[in-house]
Amino acid sequence: MNNQQLPTTIQELDIDTKELNRRIRQLQNWKAVLSIFQSDNFTPEILIHYFMATFNEAGPHQYLTNSLYHMPKKFIEYYIPQFVQYFSLISRYMVVKNGSQSMETFLESLSSLSIANYFKILWCLIAYSQDEKRYSKIYSKLESFQRRLEKEMINGALKMSNDEIEQNKDNPQFQELLMKKCMEKEFRSHYMIAQDRFIIQMIQLSLTLKSIENDSRKKYLVSQIQKGNNAIKRMTNMNRRLAYFRGIVIPFQRDNEYSEASNLMVNICEEGAACFNTKTRVPYRIVIETISIIEQQEKIDSTKVDENECDALNDTEDFIQMDVPNNLEEQMKQLTNEKQQDTIFNQLIKYDSQSSSFKDFDDLNQTLEANQNQDMLKKRSSSWSDTENSQAAVERQETRSPQKSKDLEDSFSQSSSEHQISILKIGVVEQNQQIQGIIQSPIQQRSSVNYIQNKSNSNLNPWGEDWKDKINRIKQESKFKDFESLQIRIIMVKGGDDLRQELLIMQVIQKMHEIFRSAQLNLFLKPYEIIVVSENSGILEFVQNTVSMDGLKKYLDKQKLSLVQFYKQYFDSDYHQAQKNFVESLAGYSLLSYFLQIKDRHNGNILVDNQGHLIHIDFGFALSISPGNAGFETAPFKMTKDYLEIMDNKNSSMFEYFRRLMFSGFMEIRKYCASIFQIIEIMMEKSNFNCFKYFDFSEFKQRFLLNKTEIQCRQEIDKLIQMSIEDSRTSTKLYDQFQYLTNGIYH
């Protein structure tokens, strides 16, 4: 494409919004621009690019804003964090009245359409604008906007135009309906207050549990679940004619464009509740039942309400009536800061205070020095020295700008002979017919996925009862079992944790997952839902049927089994399917780790599900930062001896399958890299996210090898694989050893 032409496909949009804006302004031909907007190829994702690039062009920007109203609901809901960030950005940094006003109007309109939209927009606005408190004029404007959002949500009950009201002023039936709608506006205001208090109590509970003795936490959590359900019952009694009073609205994503979101929490189950202890707080897991507000409204007359039960409750049994500290957000921010400051160097200080010397580390380094790759380790981890353990040295290390990612530098350097790695030459050995049958079509996805049934009769079962069975049992016992929209959700509630960056990474994971699925590639990623409630709190979907690799390793240590031995014994006749699942997930998360530079990949942050997949969680270190910025994890992605053993080592069909998946997945992501660029580019502008502290967007784009041929890309992918294998014996092993010595995480 000519440098001056405007992109017309998503594949051509590998330029940033500033360059796109420059081309639009230079063209000065609005008819030509409009023809692009009106073409059949103008997809929602292309619209987002042009929307962000035309903020200072009143005509095109207004046209695109109007086009947003006609975009798919699921698409719009996905981009709400970006829309809110964009609005906050132009409110503060851009003296552009038109751009700001059009986005304000659009977000207000979304709030009027549904209560769920309102809360998602409001929570994102609160989370992404905390820094604006330092600027009174800007923050005053944002507060005013929040009030307008609330007004639009409340007025959304009416959904009647002034003309319609005027035309029907003599229509008794219409006037009766109008009166009910006006009364609903008042009830919406009451509901908003109750819902807000309920969510705050859910978040505060994560902090309160920390003060409860460990043995009593589960019992206390169950007592609070009962109070939560009591609050829902009392809310139902406040208004039995409005569906949303039957529960708490939580803005979960809709499953597809043609179904209404199941986002009304109508019950919290005692079964499945659990507490997870951390250094500063106690995230907890609960199982909830959700239904669609629309379906509940349709069945409002047929859904029974126990009036006596509601009337018998008192304030002490009601979640909403409990006290909330005025400084809750300040408490959570302090806990968030404590977590972020608990870097690798703080852990070293803690470890040093518990022993007279770094004997374990000295022993570790002596072992590593005997390794033939020790020179590579020293070069790639030069920011780390085990002799610099004084407080002054720690402070110097923490304030130093991190080294540029060595995996990128080493991989793409054409001049340094020291880092030249020969292309992998894989000789595929013969495998039995069962393996060949599984991987005979490694690129095209089969129409059905073989689900491995839970091995309930196995002596080796670290996962316990399959969550699918639990969910089916809860559904059968639910009083909402006749609702088509009924979903049983397992969620984690966190207070004192900044989930904004987690949400950003999860958006990329979801986009990559969609790209793989659209291309029918057998690469596995597990997107899970993250809802940001404030800068320091949120709700996450719990990943079912998983155990951490750390927990599994501890379990296998007692059984005296290696990982591959466990796979073979537990999965038994399904081993080859589990092996294939493992390889497909390893390829998916290896590409994710490479593109986004995901760090802190110890075994506490890697899960294994009961199908054999690897699933990565906790993305606090990505894009430009690593724990302590110490340069430990220099590999493009994690590739351990255990992983190679499950793939039958390098000279095998499974390893060849992994290589083919890596290359095919890379090329497909490269083709649609603009979809990932736009997610990150919007959020990085003037952002206080830690991951953008040293982020270089141009360096990030280099990872996609946009100027390389297909053959060159294949060669580079093989280099990345080889580098990761070699680093598994050096820097990867060093970091895993460090986590074991300081935090007891097995490797």
TrEMBL record:
Domain PIK helical: 1-148
Protein name: 1-phosphatidylinositol 4-kinase
Catalytic activity reported: a 1,2-diacyl-sn-glycero-3-phospho-(1D-myo-inositol) + ATP = a 1,2-diacyl-sn-glycero-3-phospho-(1D-myo-inositol 4-phosphate) + ADP + H(+)
Region: Disordered, residue numbers: 373-416
Skewed-composition ranges (Basic and acidic residues): 395-409
Organism encoding this protein: Paramecium tetraurelia
Keyword annotations of the record: Kinase, Transferase
Polar residues biased stretches: 382-392
Domain annotation PI3K/PI4K catalytic: ranges: 465-729
GO cellular component terms given for this protein: cytoplasm; membrane
EC number: 2.7.1.67
EC category: transferase
Matching Pfam families: PI3_PI4_kinase
GO biological process: phosphatidylinositol phosphate biosynthetic process; phosphatidylinositol-mediated signaling
GO terms of molecular function: 1-phosphatidylinositol 4-kinase activity
PROSITE patterns xrefs: PI3_4_KINASE_1 (PS00915), PI3_4_KINASE_3 (PS50290), PIK_HELICAL (PS51545)
